[in-house]
Amino acid sequence: MNPINQQRWQRFSKNKMAMLSLKIFLALTIISLLSEVFFNDKALVVYYKGEMHFPFIQNAIPAKTFGLENESEANYLELQKTFRKKPEDGNWLMMPFIPYHYRSITKIDTEPIDLQLKKTEDFYSKQIKELQIDPNANKEKIYQLKLTRNQALGKLDSQKYHPLPPSLARKHFLGTDSTGRDILAQLSYGYRIAIAFAIILLIINYIIGIAIGCAMGYLGSWYDLLMQRVIEVLSNIPFLYIIIIIAAILRSHGFTMGFWALVGIYVSLGWMGMTWYMRTATLKEKSREYVLAARAAGASDTRIVFKHILPNVVSLLVTFAPFSISGSIIGLTSLDFLGYGLPKDYPSWGSLIKLGTDNIQAPWIITSIVCAMVLVLFLINAVGEGIRQAFDPKKISHFE
Amino acid sequence: MLQVKNLSTTFALENETVCAVDKLSFDLPQGKTLGIVGESGSGKSVSALSILRLLPRPMGQSTGEVLVDGKNILDMNPEEMLKIRGNKISMIFQEPMTALNPVHSVGKQLMETFFLHFPEITKADAWNRSLEMLTKVGIPAPDKRMHEYPHQLSGGMRQRVMIAIALSCEPDILIADEPTTALDVTVQAQIIQLMKDLQKKNNMSIIFITHDLGVVAESCDEVLVMYAGRMVEQAPVIELFEKPSHPYTKALMASLPQLSQQRKTQLQTISGLVPSLKELKDGCRFGPRSGFPHDEESLTKRPEIQQITESHRIEWCPICQKALQETSLC
Amino acid sequence: MKKYLTVVGFLFFASILTIILLAARKNTFLRETRENISIADIKRPKPFPICDEQWPTDLVWHNGMDQDIFSDPKATKGGTWNTSLTSFPPNFRQVGPDSNSGFRGAMDDNDLGLVDVHPVTQKLIPALAKEWAISKDRTIVYFKIDPDAKWDDGMPVIADDFIFRLKAMRSPGIVAPWYNQYYSTMVSDILKFDKHKIAVKLPSPMADTVLKAAMRPLPYHYYGELREIRKKYPLSRAISYLKRDNKEVPPNILKIKDEYESSVTSAKEGEKTPKEPSVEITVEDVEANWVKNHNWKIQPRTGPYNISSFIKGKEVTFERNKNWWAKDKKYYKNRYNVDQIRYTVIRDTNLAFEKFKLGQLDQFALLLPNYWHSKAKYLDPVDRGYMQKLWFYTQKPEGSSQISFNLDHPRLKDKNLRLGIIYALNIQNMLDTVLYGDYERSETFHEGYGEYSHPTLKARRFNPQKAIEYFNKAGYTKIARDGVRINDKGEILSFKILYAAPFHTQRILALQNEAKKLGLHLELDNFDTTAVFKAMLNKEHEIAWHGWGAGLRPQYRGQFHQSFAHKKQNNNLSNLDDDEVSQMIDEYRFALDTPTRVELAHKIEERLFELAPAVPTYKVPYFRQGLWRWVKYPPFIATPSNDMIMDAYGLFWIDVELQKEIRAKMTKKEIIYDIPPLIKNTRYKGAP
Ligand SMILES: Nc1ncnc2c1ncn2[C@@H]1O[C@H](COP(=O)(O)OP(=O)(O)OP(=O)(O)O)[C@@H](O)[C@H]1O
Ligand SMILES: [Mg+2]
């Protein structure tokens, strides 16, 4: 490794905050990449009649394979219950840490709650009846009683419906959303999509930004002027309208706004960001003597740009990367929040925020997503800050 | 070998064009060294860059002829140009600190020239030859240095690396633009000796650009004095030092410290400033600083080049000439 | 180059500046009030001629005075009703471009027709007409206009206002092709016998004759005389317009017609039929630039309220006409009690809900289950006795929510596949979980239409066995990775379901989850609401999740008639192209007597059930509201036709004293000890 980079890495690793952030970030990312292992409604391992099955990586296994009645895919939580009822058969299965996929909807068993509702109702009405013998004297008491009754009933009743608050027993560690999906599972899958989106966007934007930005800085003249105008025009296009229009056009040709279409739109309107920096950096580097030396040695223009100038501005690219990633995550999230982003059945942080704000009475939704969002953005920015400091040229050589 | 004929270089500035080199002509025979001297801003570097067509585009434009083996460099297409640079004509730059790419190791930068001009060469071969070059330019422990980065080297060493790079393809012509200015005196001497040695080995021609007349005296065969973009005088080195003819050359000589001079005597300096390119007129350019009154005509009409001896050329206006002859009479 | 750039840059900034200035101008909130013109200043236009026909003497006259009144005599006048709009109306016109906004209803409610419908018995009651009679052949309806009827500028409502409406609605200047068409084909003429006697001629005998003829007037004195203009129309349309206006077809047009017809008949097979030529004819038209001139004008109305002032982009205030001509009439007494109705623009529903909780809005619709069961479950004002929640089951034609399959889709053509999908949709589960068991399953496409609704037909319920059976029949026998079915051609059992409202996502997710277990993948496809509607009308969907509004009688033509199949921009979202259905729909359309129509309606529903081009989903046969307690209503709460407490019937009132009292208590956080009961009125529940 280049000693400068070695130095940078040393400096970065000395930055405790950045290092810790990087570790947590990587851990989170790995967990989310392995979401299917941690958050899934398919069992990891099923042992049935002497045979091992691995449903989470296998094709859908029909329920009848495991001795259940129906033909569709097995419901492994149910299967687990049936296995447990008959331990003597020796069948067993292992569910993931959280037995919910982001799209699995939990059914609530309402019977016991109904029973409790009735009990509570009876309990209060008896008391109220007694008090109502003298309604005027007891009006405050009756009021209080009615109020507590209503609230008790309401609290019970709300347990019959999603969203449900966090509960260890139900294994919904962060509760459910209003459809009945596990929030933690959604966070994990949603994070995976967001980070994949951000990184893909980063790579494509960098490729375009480098190619065009370097060309602008290096070639200069009319090409530079032309691209500057193009970029100015593009950056003034209202993003949301374009998204709506493009989606409408896509639809009229039979496509829906999918992940890649979104990436395409983001790229087509977002490649300019890096271009400016690359242009300035190239302009600066171009006038350095080593470029002249390389030319004098017979290096061609492309070679100069890619072999000589680019490695010198790589620090710029690296320092910008984390901030670009967090920017993309915010962008995708806000687009999803507004409803113009990914298809609605994708796990997405934006739609979770929307759900959270729409169901403010279920604070665990908004709290979870906001905390997750803040945490991830904080981590990325801490790493970014660490990188920036490690790359800071002021620190490479300084006078004691 | 290398013939430069009427080379002019202009820069298109915001709203005017300036002429940094004005009808420069000289010949450089094989195996010889031509020194170009002149004050700062007289157009030495621009001339050198023009020869290799390394001027910043699109502002810099050259006209005239630069003939290498009879072919005009200025007419070549970019691909042919790539083959000339580094291979036929190499260049060493003034500032060894910045002329090496900070992000690549010494070895990588040395090898690059081989890859550029011998596309078939294997990596191992390139490595070995680079190592050889480093040894040639006298860098101790070259195999260790190959892995190092420019900032880990001293200035002298960097300049040696530069020279190694420049000479790696055994060019016929080397243009050295003030290769020693940034170095201290002992290192300077070493580098110059090195260049001389290598010149002898490869029978290479050198254009040596410098301010330092002392250096010129010990390393060049011929000297060309430039002033404000023009050649003012060209002569074999001994002739020039013994018989400087042009008032500017004289003034330049006078500013050189002589061993014979007493320590306390002040060095003579040339009064006034080098004229800015924008305010140049076509006539005698040294006129206003020469101390002799010039009339309007001599300041606007370009003086002619006079061949004093076979190898001694001089461009001076009648007034300078006359004034000089008068002073030399006294 | 530099000069050029400077110019371009300058132009760029100049245009941006203008846009900003224009936007700023548009956003200066200025209250504009309706101008008052005294009757004396009103210029009376030239009256329309009296017709040649004789006023028949052998008619049987009805006056509808035998129905019960449906208002509460205890109602008191006064107070302001504050409510919200999600967006400001783009104009105040009732026809023309962009006139069909959500605000239209608020204006339409204040334009009376000739007759009205009793909200409980559905019988006719008088409005602008005092009496009416039907001709024997059921093509003409005679009306005697109530001599008391007045516009709110004081001018009497006369026969000319009805004729003017017909002419105006037929004129090109209103830029409303649908209205042009409707008034050219559904009403053939209006005859004026004297100031208060008119007859409305229908093109053919129709069911519900009186209602079809019961037009609304347009103030002739306000809009002024019509002018004649020359206008180009396609040949056939031009001729039909000339006939409509009782004009002779000029010989030059006849000549063009002959030429065109002969060229059509002589055109060889396979050749393109020649394009229909256009001809210029003279038609009557409203004033030039009518659309632009009337964007923000407030026309006189015959109803109890009219716009009194507005702030563009922010609010519109309606004021009660204190001298309303009908205020003491039998069916109009004790109605329309509040003095002012103020619509404020609040774009965000959550914000509106917050404002309601603060008492800035008098009511809030709690129709959505998550509001009723969750957000509005504990409302502090309710617990303190300031506010009340109301759940009222109604009995009126239901809007139809359904899932339509695009039969032009190569795979959805297959009925087995459609049936498989229908059986795989666990709608009941969706209703029970996401919708808290509140909404009800729709059995047919038209519910709540009384006898017209099919009494016994039941929609197909979720049935895994049958779903799998039909999927197998359709060739989707194998299960691929991820549990989705696949056929021999490798096509996976996955369809896009297009829907407009973002808050329906949860509902469809619930369906998706259940269907997934049977190997059917439903891909959710949702976007900007207008874009989705456009896509649906253009039949760009595979499966559409949508709903239609309710009408007076079941409407089948637009949605299921074959003449709309395979064409863009119409309501036949399934592209259903079935001869039998279309024939029955045509019969139904022109049938006169109710029993035949009812029978046809039932038969059509049965045939639709068999064909399964769509499946009805749910209905919401009630309204739910939160109300501040100063909002008072009759003891029977509302009529079965009410949309809400506050609607066209205006039966509620505001107890101004109580309002003051509650507001005073609110500031002191004092409790009113009787907690208002949560009213759930099911009087009209369960009836067809
Ligand atoms: N890119 C450029 N654009 C405009 N003018 C230039 C450019 N490069 C050089 N010049 C001008 O050309 C003239 C000659 O410059 P040059 O660098 O050749 O001087 P020099 O003799 O090498 O001086 P030094 O001894 O300081 O290196 C100077 O006046 C300089 O201002
Ligand atoms: Mg120089």
- The amount of beta strand of chain C, in percent, is 15-25%
Low-confidence stretches of chain C: none
Cα radius of gyration of chain C in angstroms: 28 Å
What is the CA-CA span between the terminal residues of chain A?
27 Å
**Structural class based on helices, strands and sheet pairing of chain C:** alpha+beta
Alpha carbon gap, first and last residue of chain C: 77 Å
How many DSSP E strands of chain A?
Answer: 3
| Cα Rg of chain A | 29 Å
> Biggest sheet of chain A, open or closed, and with what strands and sense?
3 strands, antiparallel
Most extensive chain interface and residues per partner: A-C, 52 and 49 residues
Strand order of the largest sheet of chain A: 2-1-3
Ligand types: adenosine-5'-triphosphate, magnesium ion
Give the strand order, joined by hyphens, for the main sheet of chain C. Answer: 1-11-12-13-2
Question: What's the multimeric state?
Answer: heterotrimer
The outline of chain A comes out as: elongated
Q: Please, what is the average pLDDT of chain C?
A: 88
The DSSP helix count of chain C reads 21
Shape of chain C: globular
Mean pLDDT value of chain A: 86
Contiguous low-pLDDT stretches of chain A (5 residues minimum) are: none
Structure, described:
The complex is a heterotrimer of chains A (about 400), B (about 325) and C (about 700). With about 400 residues, chain A is mainly alpha-helical. Chain A is built from 16 helices and 3 strands. Chain A has helices at about 5-15, 15-35, 35-40, 75-85, 110-130, 140-160, 185-220, 220-235, 240-250, 260-270, 270-285, 290-295, 300-340, 350-360, 365-390, 395; strands at about 45-50, 50-55, 90-95. In chain A, strands 2-1-3 form a 3-stranded antiparallel sheet, covered by helices on one side. In chain A, α7 runs parallel beside α10. The relative contact order of chain A is 0.11. The model of chain A has no long low-confidence stretch (mean pLDDT about 85). Chain B is of the alpha/beta class. Chain B folds into 2 domains: about 1-90 and about 170-260 and about 270-330, P-loop containing nucleotide triphosphate hydrolases (Rossmann fold), CATH 3.40.50.300; about 100-170, no CATH class. Chain B contains 13 helices and 12 strands. The longest helix of chain B has 18 residues, at about 185-200. Chain C has about 700 residues and is α+β, with helices and mostly antiparallel strands. Chain C contains 21 helices and 28 strands. In chain C, the strands form 9 sheets. Chain C has a 5-stranded mixed sheet, with no helix packed on it. Chain C has a 5-stranded mixed sheet with strand order 21-20-22-16-23, with helices on both faces. Chain C has a 4-stranded antiparallel sheet with strand order 5-6-8-7. In chain C, a hairpin with a 2-residue loop joins β7 and β8. The longest helix of chain C is centred in the N-terminal third of the chain and has 26 residues, at about 1-25. Chains in contact: A-B, A-C. The interface between A and B is medium-sized, with 24 and 35 residues. The structure holds adenosine-5'-triphosphate and magnesium ion. Magnesium ion binds next to α1 of chain B.
